[in-house]
Design a protein that fits this description.
A hairpin with a 5-residue loop joins strand 2 and strand 3. The model has no long low-confidence stretch (mean pLDDT 80). The longest helix is centred in the middle third of the chain and has 17 residues. Helix 2 packs antiparallel against helix 3. The chain has one domain: Beta-Lactamase (2-Layer Sandwich), CATH 3.30.450. By secondary structure, the protein is an alpha+beta fold. Helices cover 38% and strands 14% of the residues.
Length: 105
């Protein structure tokens, strides 16, 4: 889906269009950030949440690069371990954002 959306944006957008930032539907908003090295970070939010391009850029540079790519035990292309410092840092970062809300049951 991401590749199709990127291709579609390149075809109908201005000549220097490289991809898309978000897709909004009545139910959700899909935010995407793609690095020059090909990594894609994607998050689904409520449709009313503003663009999260800078938040995704921060997640990549401040968390992913430092906790995953610079880890000597990580091999490029491997799945990111679920119990890693990255996962905990990501959880802390997301829950501290103003767009995050807990659902009380």
């Amino acid at each position: 889906m991401l590749l199709t959306l990127k291709s579609f944006c390149q075809q109908i957008g201005p000549s220097k269009t490289t991809g898309f930032n978000s897709l909004t539907t009545p139910q959700y908003k899909l935010h995407c950030f793609e690095t020059l090295s090909g990594y894609r970070l994607v998050i689904n939010t409520d449709p009313g949440v503003p663009d999260l391009k800078e938040a995704l850029r921060s997640i990549y540079s401040d968390l992913f690069v430092k906790q995953v790519l610079m880890n000597p035990l990580y091999n490029l292309g491997d799945e990111v371990p679920r119990n890693s410092l990255f996962a905990q840092g990501l959880r802390n970062y997301i829950t501290a954002r103003p767009f995050f809300a807990t659902i009380s049951t």
